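Why predict the complex rather than its parts? Because the way molecules touch one another can change local conformation, and only a joint prediction can capture that. The input here totals 938 residues.
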Amino acid sequence: MIPSKFVGLLIGLFAVCYQTLGQQVDVDNLRFRAEKYFSIKNYEQAYKLFEELTKVVPEDHINHYKTGVCLFNFLDINEQVKSIPYFEFAKKNLEVIPKDVYFYLGQAYHKDMRIEEALESFNNYKRLTGSTENEDIEKKLEHSIQTCKNALVLLRQKKNIAITNLGPSINSANIEYNPVVAADQSRMAFTVLDQSSEPFKEEIRVTYNNGKGSWEKPETIDVGTENNVGTAGMSADGKEMMIFIGGVNQTGNLYSIQRKGKKWSTPNIYNKQINSGHLESTASTTPDGRTIYFASNRPGGYGGFDIYMSKKDKDGNWGKAINLGPIVNTSANEDAPFIHPDQRTLFFTSNGHNTIGGQDIFKTVKMGQKWSNPENMGFPINTAADDNYFTLTADGKKGFFSSDRKGGFGRQDIYWFDMPEEYANIPLTLVKGRILAGEGKNKKPVSCKINVVEKDTGKPLEYVYSPDIQTGNYLMIFPPNKSYNMIIKADGYLPHTISIEVPRQTYFYELYQQINLKSVKQFDKVVGQEVTVQNAFFDTKKEDVINTKKANESMLVRNDSVDVYELMDLIIASEDEIAFDYLSELYKINPLESVEFNASSKTESADAVYFYDENKKEDLELHIVGNDTIYTLPELNVKQASIAQKNKPINKITYDKKLLESIFMVYFSAGDSIVQEDYLKQMKEVVTILDKNKSLGIEISGFASPEGDQDKNKVLSNARANEVLNYFNTNGIPRRRIIAKGLGVTNDNTEKEKNRRVEIRIVDLDKI
Amino acid sequence: MKQYIAKYAIVLVLLMVVTNLQAQEYKFHSVFIYQFTKYIEWPVDYRSGEFIIAILGESPVTPYLEDVARTKTAGAQKIVVKKVSNINEIPKCNMLFIPRSKSGELNTILAKLTDKPTLVITEKPGLGKQGSGINLITINDKLKFELNEAAIQKSKLKVSNNLLSLAIRI
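Output of the joint prediction:
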């Protein structure tokens, strides 16, 4: 038993020895090869070997460190973040591990959006190395720390936005980037960089929206060149694409291609203002095609790529390229401009502003002549990875961009997200209105409140508008593509409901509105009211640009963004008459005065007369606005009524024309307004005629004899006319069919008693 | 959230523009009046102590001028806005603003202020000719100022050429 045990042990021991010996040989060999690859920075090969090595020698800190470095140098972020556990292990033995393990680890944490841990690592690194490190690394470290601090701020303001990968039909292990989308989202083009080919090959693919919310299989656009081709921009209608064609020698130019039927035209190169001989990479044009924003690394900028702007001159050529200036452009790169159809919101990609890592997407808004300080689009649109090439659909609701963030199908992928309404750049409609009451020269502002209710939801808007009592002016702002009811409560009038339809616009609109209220009287008695509404739409896109510019500047001046006091001081100091005039222009009192409601083709005009005898309480519309219950006259839809009133059909004459010739006289006794029996019979006949002919009405004229007190006579004349009128009214003829004509004193008749009369004529209501 | 607030802030500002359409113009009045403190020179004894802008009666310009007084100075002088309810209370002041509603009292006021270096500012067409130093008026919807050189000279005030070049001189 014993010997056999011994032998067994011996054999066992030998086996172990042999194994260890063999392993030692292997480990040395592995380490040698791994180090070799590591030193020539072939991290992919080195990684495989180090990983193997780590399996055999699991406690080796140096192996861990180097495995981490390999992973960190991979191109794909999903691999890069795998370096974290290796560095975490390696840093436990700082006696053998370079101190920069903390720098690596910080960066890896950063990429994994573990910002606080990243900051801690960076600070550890700083503490360990002091300020003796070389300047470049120190700069890089400071930048990393700053970037993490930015990230902390933006993470705290995290936006509630879901970012969606466009999926495997679009994205692959290749680099898909720079999506450009037509305003109606019918087509999207993007650039694909295939790294498996040598040299790298870049091409454009286009995909069409199948209308069911998904994209068809992308097709490659062949523009007939062997060079690299990339998307640069797409016109709002998707019919024109700006593309980049570049060679290997680091130059590249912008071209345009047009869609003709199912094909794309051969590329046309942009002129020398746009293409400099250096690298122009991306571009975006305004929907009117008159302004282009593009990125270029030409000399004379602020460093790296800068964003430039050019406008078409009157001959249709692109004018001098203008650098957008140091607010937008930094010493780092600004690229991928996207000008929103509102023509004043510019999105771009930069690694120079307050990024939260790599490239981020920024937004700047043109205020007057100045661009606002670029604003980071925030997390989760921006991450520590490269987030770039942003494009927003015209309705401001959907954003597309590319990113090499964690997850995805490898390297850069294309993503989209729904822009929440509160962040969306909504093309608003600004209503500048005025409400007056009365007639002719007596039109006056009236004490009045306007409630606005969203028609679909019945939701009242937050604000109750009170037109200025001095001028009757009001100003309201509406998002597009919705209908609203304006409930107008003016002193002395029944409330009106006026519905307005804000167009489905993609631009900033101005709507000028004029409302006039008027009492309708019959023989001094208020029997109804009339409302006239005129709307004039101004598409600020189509009006000259000055207007929008002015509107913006006016806003700046008015909302105290500018110190007008100092501005005026400057103007006076320089005796600048033009500026002086311009500044006062911005304070123009009433823009409504300058609106020609009749000249604009985009005018709607409608009026409605409401007679109280037809609008009993049960006919009124009930509106519940917040806590208020308001009964209003039936809704006036300005758009529909305007069309209806313009295209009013000419009714065929169906009555006997002779009817119009008859005049019925009703005579009265002196001082009396009682209608005698004889006349009642006559009037009944008129009622019968009116019942038979709905297009006819009556005109009632009251007369009074010239004898005695004039005022008294007028009162009496009105009383008599009213008697007659009431007869018709109570016998089923609504006031709408009755025209009251108070003529007052008359002596056209020699017989005094004949001056004390009321005349009834039958009239065609369509012809008045 | 930040943008959310910003968006509504803009709406609010615009709303304020509406409600204050009338009042807004008066900010521009105050912009002018502040410039007059800079481009008009008062005699020595009016150049120390408080720089007093008196306003006769009620005017929408008052809050704007009070704002100016809070945030700006007239040279080294502290600006003080004094509301005056009737012409007998008009104090020693550098400027007197006569609102449109009190325009009728211009002549009486001018008589009272003879030989005093008080710049009389009015806001009704025609009052420039009638003898106010500066008359703020609206021409083609734009606020302008008439400057009556004779009246200002009489008040022993000196107007800079810069201001003159932008004024409607009477």
